[in-house]
User: Fold Replication initiation protein-like C-terminal domain-containing protein from uncultured prokaryote.
Amino acid sequence: MDAISKVDYYGDWEQIRPMRNYDAAAAFVVGNETRFKINFGGQNEEHGPNIVGSGACAQVLADVVREHFPAHRVSRLDSCEDYYHADAYEYLRKLALKIGKEHRVQCREIVKPLKDSDDGRTLYLGSQTSAVSMRIYEKGKQLQTDSEWVRAELQVRPQKDLKSVMAMLDATEVWGLAKWSHEMGVQLGKRDLRRVDAQVYQQSDHERAYRFMLKQYRRVLENMLASHGSPEAVGAQIFYDLEHTEDQRPKTSLKPI
Assistant:
């Protein structure tokens, strides 16, 4: 945890609910963004802590762990290539089905036929229990951003002693773990598809809570603006009241009868 903390001195650890078979867990949070999660103790204590980093944080975590803990194991590795082209999905789909047929790899496709609920197509190579599998999917449609953004993503779940071997592979080398994935990796760069470095923005818990507050109390804030005359006056009133919550006691009016 000390090594991870040095990645960003503005971050801090917060206690979270542990995964199954672990006694405790914590999340490394910078501002309102969760960067890493660690689980430790319990039935899996003999194997050491379980640390998770995804997206842009995955490589940062890999670098820290490799520097400070050379002898470690990984339970899952993901490597992806992002493409931006109108024909990207169709081209990658055709290529994957050809390679899957040649190597007798199980293939299945999920298609959303309703236009109003279309979150994109997904083609899977390899079964759900395979050590090496791949999915090609319309990432832009999934996130409801750009329909031409397509991702080819390899997923590796190493078994037993291979967990230690796989721990030192980089994002390119993992494509060589199976004959079919190696061929797929080679073919991915042959056509002039536009490759992109995609970063997915996700709302933090704070942002979601803030948006909900605005929606829930919009009428109250608008009434305050009407009575106070300016946004600055509304803000000043709110923060004054926050600092003097103990002064807001119930008021009683007594009238003679």
